[in-house]
Amino acid sequence: MNAEKNHVDEPPQSLEYGTGRSYVFGFFLSAFFVLAAYFVAVKQLFSGLALGLVVSSLGLAQAFLQLVLFFNLFREPKPRWNILVFLFMVLVVLILVIGSLWIMTHLNYNMMPEPVE
What we know:
Elements: H1 2-9, H2 20-42, H3 49-69, H4 80-111
């Protein structure tokens, strides 16, 4: 009976969680995204809003890459709880960032002196 329990607790052999090959591939791909964003910004290949969108999209691509390759977020057979926890974390971060920006905007408006004419 003990042998059956150990057999059930082991993850399936077909799933490759965190192999050395995936970590090295993820490292080099992450470094590529960082260098690409750096060179796009330094060489000013785009200007204005386009530059912001390109750098932001490279950052989002790197974040998704790290979630998949380093955190193994979407690689489980039933990743429901991990994805729910991740989405809750994203919601909390969005509330903190948007709330902080809202507070700073209103503080700036309320603390500025009246213009003298």
